[in-house]
Amino acid sequence: MTPPTAIDRLADWICSLHADRAVRNIPASVRSIAANCLIDTIGVAFAGSATAVARTARAIAVDAGSRGDAAVLGSHHLFSAPAAAFANATSAHALDFDDNCYAGFVHGSAVIAPAAIAVAQKRNASGRDLLTAFIVGSECEYAVGAATNSVLYDHGWWTTGVLGPIGACAAAAWLLKLDRRQTASALGLAVAGTGGMKACFGTDAKALMAGRAAEAGIVAALLAAQGASGPHDAFEHWNGFNGLFNQGEFNLATMAQLGMQWFLESPGVDIKRIPLCLSSHAAVDAAMALVARHAIDVAAIEEIVCDVPQIVFANLIYNQPATRQQAQFSMPFAIAVSLLYGSVQLQHLDGAVLQEQPVLELMKRVKMTVGPRWSLEGACEAAPEGANVRIRLRGGDWLEEFQAQARGSAQCPMRQDEIEAKFMQCMEAGSAGNVHGQGGSGNGGDRDTGALLLSRLKSIETLPSVRELFSVR
């Protein structure tokens, strides 16, 4: 007998959750984590809906003339599920303020949540079903991500673009209640058509590719629902995922962990405290801790050296950023703005801040290096985006701080009130951007709207229908 493929195993698990009793076996802790992921992702999507790249995505959705039942943030119109997922996932990743997961080094929620919401609205599904679909998509995507053993990411593929369609497709397939054959075909279509390069970093392509990943996953599920076939061996085929993307490596055993080990719990999801690439966060935390502990006058700093893993060095490529997108991948910007302003907020991602003389001067004093500590066995596994920060003050004194995990990571999570405060700040940012002409007025949120939406999201499992999720009534 031919052994089951990776897609067979994914499809089997997805379809096993069609029974209500099986859904009830999802641990409450997992559902709680997933609910916070939805809160965080919808918040950052509202803020991102005011950006130029989100407006571009909405314009394409409008131009396609696609009408349906799914809401798009920043628009009064309802769109087809693929169009809505494209626009909303672009918004969710536009500010790089969305969550991460180390199972694949992937931005999961920004792709999966918009896809799940769009299909749930198309199907007039309940909030409970939306949350379950999000969990299904997340677990499938992270299982595949874990199976790559980071080879995919290390070889220059952008995992959000490559793995995102898998998570979006799994969520959509579950909501559409595809049978096992259809589910496997949908996943085969999603895997066979996937792609994404890290060359997108620092440009609009990064957010737009997140949008395309969400759209592609839904389209694959809808095609399979209409009878289209897809390769069930899309991973193992000699011209498949494993060989073309992952240097022939793939740990099929992770598929067997679905439903027993929950990837939303371990390695967990990292919710961002500041709107920058997560690679900079631990270094920022370490630098801020040094300044606070030693009451350092920032003007007295001569040099800041951040000793980081190779992955951080490779991600943060802009020492002299000229745009918002470049600033989000700049260690000097992250450190300088944090020390000068006390934190990095959405309003700091502005061209004017990049031109401020104190920011420019402090950025020149920040350096990154990859020291020998990261070659020690287990060092990168224990602190995948950690940092050892040394600050030299005028007069020659050095101060040092090591930070293994950033605050907001799964190992050092934000408090519930901090997650909710971030949500409200994002809602206000989206509302301000829309009011000032930077986006369609649509359903961008003010504080009252934000409070209403937050209340709905906190009780998502009791909502009879998600079609009114973003309604201000």
TrEMBL record:
<dbReference type="InterPro" id="IPR005656">
    <property type="entry name" value="MmgE_PrpD"/>
</dbReference>
<dbReference type="InterPro" id="IPR042183">
    <property type="entry name" value="MmgE/PrpD_sf_1"/>
</dbReference>
<comment type="similarity">
    <text>Belongs to the PrpD family.</text>
</comment>
<dbReference type="InterPro" id="IPR042188">
    <property type="entry name" value="MmgE/PrpD_sf_2"/>
</dbReference>
<dbReference type="Pfam" id="PF03972">
    <property type="entry name" value="MmgE_PrpD_N"/>
</dbReference>
<feature type="domain" description="MmgE/PrpD N-terminal">
    <location>
        <begin position="9"/>
        <end position="249"/>
    </location>
</feature>
<protein>
    <submittedName>
        <fullName>2-methylcitrate dehydratase</fullName>
    </submittedName>
</protein>
<dbReference type="InterPro" id="IPR036148">
    <property type="entry name" value="MmgE/PrpD_sf"/>
</dbReference>
<feature type="domain" description="MmgE/PrpD C-terminal">
    <location>
        <begin position="275"/>
        <end position="428"/>
    </location>
</feature>
<dbReference type="Pfam" id="PF19305">
    <property type="entry name" value="MmgE_PrpD_C"/>
</dbReference>
<dbReference type="InterPro" id="IPR045336">
    <property type="entry name" value="MmgE_PrpD_N"/>
</dbReference>
<dbReference type="InterPro" id="IPR045337">
    <property type="entry name" value="MmgE_PrpD_C"/>
</dbReference>
